[in-house]
């Protein structure tokens, strides 16, 4: 398999703090890889090293076949990047920004080409207004547009939908899927578990600088959370103890007890046994496991807006 | 009433916490009082140099030189008697020089009218100061020779152009100051903004290099400054009948000045906390330079210690070079000034391109 990104033992440390800890990552060409983790997990640091704008402390990293520490100049024009904290140039309009960016990459887009690109990201109505007057979502779309200007083989999107409303998020997802359809590779970071599940071919969960789990979303779910969960609403710690005493693998999510059932043929029997528990619970239902359950299983906490919950 | 007081306090707190607010409220007036006070209060020795060519070489001329030497306002230096004084003045960009023509001693003894020749640029304050000292010495000599009846006098011989005025002197200073303020101030603020708003990081993901980015800014400011020079000159000529000669040297000086001050702005902007702190620091660097580098006042008219300070300020050489090229037509000195500014410009450019990092650590 050809990899767009390969890292081996990648380490980034700041004194005693290790932001990225022995990261081994492979991103297949033409795929979407989501690096998932809470704020401060090391996602942006790792991506910035791979974008060639941050130095690494130890280990090796190759992007599009070139060593990031020494040969980045050779791939610079083949990548596109949307930084986490992207801010457009206030006094340039989206159209001017796209044309400016194309010249930086030596592409010199024509005006109709630039307009087409802005139409693709849904900014055609606002292409002439100064960026200062764009909304947060529109600024993000402009960031996507300039990341796409060099027609990159590899696109880095650092938290592309943070702060966007649900409809703007879906529009960005559509764009990202479109990029993959064209055969390009996308590495995105996110703390939205549903975003990773919706978009990514492969997911890596980064926690405290370490890659704690990696794989296709459905594999991760099957491996770590079971395909289906039985939820005992409000059963609490007493319920958990009783379920475990019955021989089920289970975990507590706030006051709910989650019981993963890997084999669907065992579902009916499991429901029957759990319904007979002595511990009272408010309700009992089944649902499909998600990456959220995987994350809870592996990290031990839920994540909301990038923050780990106690 | 309470809400107005609360708002006044809150606003005052924010204003004073802003570096730029504190700069203009406190540091700027203090700087002005110190600078102007130092320039105009006569602190220190404010001697001007008075080169003298004594073609007479008699006891009478030597006595007159002694009299000049006793003045606390001039330092007499001797010019070789075989030098052509006009050429000597031009070659050394002197503001003033005195010739004691042969026959001075004889005329003084015979009490017949006789004139010394004062060469120089009457638009310069150093010329005026030297002329006053020579005049006072002549009054004293006349008094000794012939009571109140004047025998010896001064004949002025302007050496640049009889029509040069203070405004002609002023024009290159304004151009130099504009090069410094436009490049330094805006670049400091832009570099700080690019860093704090992470534009540098964004640009680092493109094929544009740091040196390329800085070069683009330099190219822009050079074109801006050339346009500014032409507009300033046109206004000066139309409104004040200014005189200036435009050759390639002033443009080369402007280019070197833009490289120097743009790079300096990038250096400052890359270390300050935010754009407003950058402006405050640029002001703290730029204001003293503006007033001490001969943009508005002749350096020679300043107290000695300020002249020493002025000689280490890069704007001094830019202003001097522009004056030598545009007003005095002294290309040798203008090229020397250009050399000094260029060396500094190249050094600061490479320092900025090397030290400023637009990537993350």
Describe this structure in words.
The complex is a heterodimer of chains A (310) and B (361). Chain A contains ten helices and 16 strands. Chain A is an alpha/beta fold and 310 residues long. Chain A has two domains: 3-221, P-loop containing nucleotide triphosphate hydrolases (Rossmann fold); 226-288, 2-Layer Sandwich (Alpha-Beta Plaits). Chain A has a six-stranded mixed beta sheet with strand order 6-7-8-3-9-10, with helices on both faces. In chain A, strands 2-1-4-5 form a four-stranded antiparallel beta sheet, with helices on one face. Chain A is elongated, with a radius of gyration of 22 Å. The model of chain B has no long low-confidence stretch (mean pLDDT 84). The radius of gyration of chain B is 26 Å and the shape is elongated. By secondary structure, chain B is an alpha/beta fold. Chain B starts with a helix and ends in a 6-residue tail after the last helix. Chain B is built from 14 helices and five strands. Chain B has helices at 2-17, 19-40, 59-69, 85-91, 104-110, 125-146, 166-196, 199-204, 210-240, 248-269, 275-292, 304-310, 314-326, 331-355; strands at 48-54, 74-78, 96-100, 114-120, 152-158. In chain B, 66% of the residues lie in helices and 9% in strands. The chains are: A alpha/beta (310), B alpha/beta (361). The A-B interface holds A 14, 45, 48, 51-55, 73, 76-77, 79-81, 83, 85-87, 89, 101, 104-106, 156 and B 197-199, 201-208, 359-361.
């Amino acid at each position: 398999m050809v990899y767009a990104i390969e890292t081996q033992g990648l380490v980034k440390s700041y004194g005693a703090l290790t932001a990225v800890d022995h990261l081994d990552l492979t991103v297949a060409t033409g795929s979407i890889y989501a690096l998932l983790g809470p704020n401060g997990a090391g996602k942006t640091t790792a991506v910035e090293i791979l974008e060639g704008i941050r130095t690494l402390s130890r280990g090796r990293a190759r992007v599009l076949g070139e060593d990031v520490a020494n040969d980045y100049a050779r791939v610079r024009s083949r990548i596109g990047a949307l930084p986490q904290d992207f801010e457009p140039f206030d006094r340039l309009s989206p159209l001017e920004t796209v044309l400016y960016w194309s010249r930086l990459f030596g592409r010199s887009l024509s005006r109709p080409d630039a307009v087409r690109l802005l139409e693709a990201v849904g900014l055609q109505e606002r292409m002439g207004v100064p960026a200062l007057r764009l909304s947060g979502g529109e600024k993000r779309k402009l960031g996507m547009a300039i990341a796409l200007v060099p027609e990159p083989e590899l696109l880095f999107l650092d938290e592309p939908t943070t702060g966007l409303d649900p409809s703007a998020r879906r529009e960005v997802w559509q764009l990202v899927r479109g990029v993959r359809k064209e055969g390009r590779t996308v590495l995105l970071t996110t703390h939205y578990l549903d975003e990773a599940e919706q978009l990514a071919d492969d997911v890596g969960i980064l926690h405290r600088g370490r890659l704690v789990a990696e794989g296709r979303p459905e594999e991760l779910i099957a491996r770590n959370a079971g395909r289906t969960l039985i939820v005992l609403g409000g059963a609490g710690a007493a319920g958990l103890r009783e379920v475990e005493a019955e021989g089920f693998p289970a975990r507590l999510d706030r006051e709910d007890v989650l019981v993963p059932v890997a084999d669907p043929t065992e579902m009916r029997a499991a429901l029957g046994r759990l319904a007979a528990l002595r511990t009272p619970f408010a309700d009992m239902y089944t649902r499909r496991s998600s990456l959220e359950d995987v994350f809870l299983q592996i990290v031990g906490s839920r994540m909301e807006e990038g923050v780990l919950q106690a | 009433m309470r809400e107005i007081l609360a708002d006044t306090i809150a606003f005052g707190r924010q204003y004073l916490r802003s570096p730029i607010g504190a700069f203009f409220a406190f540091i700027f007036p203090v700087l002005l009082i110190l600078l102007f006070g130092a320039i105009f209060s006569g602190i220190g020795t404010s001697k001007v140099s008075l080169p003298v060519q004594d073609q007479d070489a008699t006891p009478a001329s030597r006595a007159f030189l002694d009299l000049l030497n006793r003045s606390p306002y001039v330092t007499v230096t001797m010019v070789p008697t075989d030098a052509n004084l006009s050429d000597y003045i031009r070659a050394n960009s002197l503001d003033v020089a005195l010739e004691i023509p042969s026959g001075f001693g004889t005329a003084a003894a015979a009490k017949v009218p006789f004139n010394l020749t004062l060469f120089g640029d009457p638009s310069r304050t150093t010329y005026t100061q030297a002329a006053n000292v020579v005049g006072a010495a002549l009054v004293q000599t006349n008094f000794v020779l012939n009571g109140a009846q004047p025998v010896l006098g001064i004949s002025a011989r302007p050496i640049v152009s009889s029509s040069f005025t203070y405004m002609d002197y002023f024009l290159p200073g304004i151009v130099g100051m504009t090069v410094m303020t436009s490049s330094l101030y805006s670049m400091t603020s832009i570099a700080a903004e690019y860093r704090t708003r992470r534009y540098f990081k964004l640009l680092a993901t493109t094929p544009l290099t740091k040196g390329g980015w800085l070069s683009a800014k330099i190219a822009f400011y050079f074109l801006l400054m050339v346009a500014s020079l032409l507009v300033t000159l046109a206004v000066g000529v139309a409104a004040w009948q200014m005189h200036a000669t435009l050759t390639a040297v002033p443009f080369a000086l402007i280019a070197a000045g833009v490289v120097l001050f743009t790079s300096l702005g990038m250096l400052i902007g890359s270390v300050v906390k935010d754009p407003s702190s950058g402006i405050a620091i640029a002001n703290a660097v730029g204001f003293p330079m503006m007033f001490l580098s001969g943009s508005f006042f002749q350096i020679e008219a300043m107290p000695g210690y300020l002249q020493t300070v002025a000689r280490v300020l890069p704007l001094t050489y830019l202003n001097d070079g522009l004056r030598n090229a545009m007003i005095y037509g002294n290309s040798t000195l203008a090229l020397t000034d250009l050399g000094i500014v260029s060396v500094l410009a190249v050094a600061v450019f490479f320092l900025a391109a090397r030290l400023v990092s637009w990537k993350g650590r």
